[in-house]
Amino acid sequence: MTIYVGCIDIHGGKVKQIVGGTLEKDDRENVDEVSTNFVSELSSAHYAQIYKKNNIERTHVIKLGSLASNDEAATNAIKAWPNALQIGGGINISNAKQWIDKGAAKVIVTSWLFPEQELDWTRLEQLSALIGPERLVIDLSCRKVEQDGQHHWVVAMNKWQTLTRTVLSKSLFDDLSRYCSEFLVHAADVEGLCKGIDEELVQKLGEWSSIPVVYAGGAKSISDLKLVEKLSGGKVDLTYGSSLDLFGGNMVKFEDCCSWNKNHK
């Protein structure tokens, strides 16, 4: 059954909610040149403790940029709830095990798997063998592309700014599921807009994936949990960002998300 999954997005060392399509530069270049919906004065550890208290499992912590302060904030979140959180952002074969050793339950990887915008199966095999499929989440965040009167979803890397040559499909999910235990999919075109989920993509994810998958992007109402459950046959889970009161939103109450999980687990 569909459940609510938490998130902690970190940019410039702070917990933020960002309009996904505007994240064009590394925060080493200019931390302020993004469109933000929310910037918290509270620490990443504070949010981790909230998720821990309410047992919001599989919460993901995403580092948006390469500042050392992002690593520090992610580490502090892990310390607040060790062996429970998933860490993403800049993950590769050199640092994945380090994050596991620090206390991350799983690592989330995207861009490193796509050198020259092509999926590198050798890299995937090596990373999966190093930490084990049970510790690996593959991020297949994507953008919708129109071609010859039809549309499909293409994996987007580098903060969702660079399109790869990998198109989402059932065969792709089947092949990748041998190397990981979960997928994370941000619909980058609607991420942070609070204007509704990509319903067709959610339905497709329910058809395509045989292992757990979390959808992110556009959720604006507690009723979206019911909608995702219906569209995906209960196979896709949902996370909220800018619409959630935890992050300054006024559309969705965290308390209601917790109640949903208690009634649906």
Describe it for me?
With 265 residues, the chain is of the alpha/beta class. It has one domain (7-264): Aldolase class I (TIM Barrel). Helix content is 30%, strand content 23%. It has a 10-stranded mixed sheet with strand order 3-2-1-4-5-6-7-11-12-13. Strands 8-9-10 form a 3-stranded antiparallel sheet, with no helix packed on it. Its main location: cytoplasm. Belongs to the HisA/HisF family. Keywords: Amino-acid biosynthesis, Cytoplasm, Histidine biosynthesis, Isomerase.
Question: Characteristics of this structure?
Answer:
265 residues; alpha/beta; TIM Barrel; ten-stranded mixed sheet; three-stranded antiparallel sheet; 30% helix; 23% strand; globular
Write down the overall geometry. globular
Q: Portion of residues in helices?
A: 25-40%
CATH architecture: Alpha-Beta Barrel
* CATH class value: Alpha Beta
Order of strands in the sheet with the most strands? Answer: 3-2-1-4-5-6-7-11-12-13
Radius of gyration: 17 Å
| SSE order, one letter for each helix or strand | EEEHEHEHEHEEEEHEHEHEH
Low-confidence segments, given as residue ranges, are: none
- Number of H- or I-type helical stretches: 8
Q: Can you summarize the main beta sheet?
A: 10 strands, mixed
Q: What's the number of extended β-strand segments?
A: 13
Residues in β-strands, percent: 15-25%
Instruction: Count structural domains.
Output: 1
Let me know the CATH homologous superfamily: Aldolase class I
Structural class: alpha/beta
Keywords: Amino-acid biosynthesis, Cytoplasm, Histidine biosynthesis, Isomerase
Organism: Ogataea philodendri
Subcellular location: Cytoplasm
GO molecular function, one term: 1-(5-phosphoribosyl)-5-[(5-phosphoribosylamino)methylideneamino]imidazole-4-carboxamide isomerase activity
